[in-house]
């Protein structure tokens, strides 16, 4: 074997040793990171075991000691939340069942509804007491105000029905109001499920921007409606007889509701596309074909309104969803694990682990470089 072959083989061995050293360094860094995570979890468990309400009292947002920490934890726990969700679903099912007139006066359904009302009253009282020493904080959340309003109206309806003897199963404006509020009980799901809260909050936050986009769409509809009456009005009285009909027609085109039928009337004229009832009702005395104008009009309208402007709604709602997600995540009543994400502390730990790994690799490479220099020196001698 020549000296060059021996040299290449030794260099390959050194390179393999360096790669193995780098792999060992990565394994050590990963093991150290896992060990640090396990130690942090053990420390958290020990801290939770040692901390009690007496040694480390729960504090509210203003720095005041919470007088009923166990009650506050209970009303914010997942089990309590699931319990309320269950009864909200039951209340919604009962409202649907009562659409049958034969079941509106059922004693069993009335008893269950009374039980649900009591549960909602207890829920509201527990949450108000849990906010002590400032129970008015309960009403700072609009969802809590909505829940409390449902409870108040439910209590009034129960008093009117059982104490005053009013029949709430009949018809009338007052009865309709109480029925609607009874139906609104199922809307408590929006508060109980954070993901639904995000969607509803995004819808509410996007209303101002959606309003401006709606104004833009109306302006485009108005401009195209006036042009459509001028261009196609004589040929197509059914779809462009006046501005009002033209706006309705363009709304159909915008939503792709049989818009091809409207296009064909302009392409081939009303004489070939109108039915006999259409001719009798709208007339067809000035039939004309306008293929180029029709294609330019409708395709430009669809491109501008349907594909561009309507997509602005998606952008607005997406931005509102991001904002709503941050708001719901900031709510202390929302479980942190439902929105798990990497924190700054996790990033810092990863950076430190990578830094140690790079230092180990650098040391291994320096050692490999020294061995390679010694081999080359021996070859030269």
Write the layout of secondary structure elements.
Blueprint: H1 3-50, H2 69-75, H3 78-97, H4 107-130, H5 142-163, H6 173-183, H7 189-192, H8 194-232, H9 237-240, H10 243-254, H11 259-268, H12 270-273, H13 276-282, H14 291-330, H15 344-380
Helix pairs in contact: 1-15, 2-4, 3-4, 4-5, 8-10, 8-14, 11-14
Can you characterise this structure?
This protein is an all-alpha fold and 381 residues long. It contains 15 helices and no strands. The chain has helices spanning 3-50, 69-75, 78-97, 107-130, 142-163, 173-183, 189-192, 194-232, 237-240, 243-254, 259-268, 270-273, 276-282, 291-330, 344-380.
The quaternary structure here is single chain
SSE pattern? HHHHHHHHHHHHHHH
Percent of residues in beta strands?
under 5%
Task: Please report the number of helical segments.
Answer: 15
Return the structural class: mainly alpha
Mean of all residue-level pLDDT scores? 76
Give the termini distance in whole angstroms: 18 Å
Overall geometric form: flat
Helix content: over 70%
Rg value: 36 Å
Q: Strand tally, please?
A: 0
Give the uncertain stretches in residue-range form.
46-56, 335-341
Tell me about the biggest sheet? none
